[in-house]
Amino acid sequence: MSTTTPASPHPGHDNPAVTVPTTPQTPDDGDAPSSAPIRVALYITDASGNQEQFLRRYAEEHLPDSAVVATYRDNGYPGRTQPTLRPGLRDVLTAATSGLFDVLLTERLTRISRRVDYVVDVAGQLQAASIRLITADQEIDTGTPLGHTVMAMAGVLAKAQREHDRAHRQATRSGAAHNP
User: Fold this and answer.
1) Angle 116-128/87-97 helices, nearest 10 degrees?
2) Predicted confidence (pLDDT) per residue in 47-88, tens digit
3) Engineering a disulfide at 100: which of 31, 40, 95, 142 sits with its beta carbon 3.0 to 4.6 angstroms away?
4) Are 135 and 108 in contact (CB under 8 A)?
């Protein structure tokens, strides 16, 4: 006996790094004000399960009108790996642009990347999709003025780092050309 599983409407659902629970859809009667919960996606880089438990507890305590709608995982990737090379984070960005969640909750910014420029890029993509980025340990929320300011400062730091790296590469090339 063979069974057929319908194609998932969720990008990345076939990826083992993504867990998307199925929830029953209730029809909107059109008359009542919308009381839909805030849709939260978790981003986890720890295989132990401790991060997920911590983030779920954080969501319950700090985002009371929320529901975890997806969990994205990237286990075993170094913190400096480009976000586009991590399947879980790639799926986060795809789902964000599709409007599948409202908030991305992660333990801390370094779970996105240890490189400030990568964090700023991911935060910018989330902001362009009207998604809030919240870090549980650092309590950064890009949906607040303080969180927005923190990310703006991170952007300035990322620009300074890029300029420093560029100057260092040019100096290295210049020195290599003069030292045969």
Assistant:
1) 30
2) 888 999 999 999 999 998 999 999 999 988 887 888 889 999
3) 95
4) yes
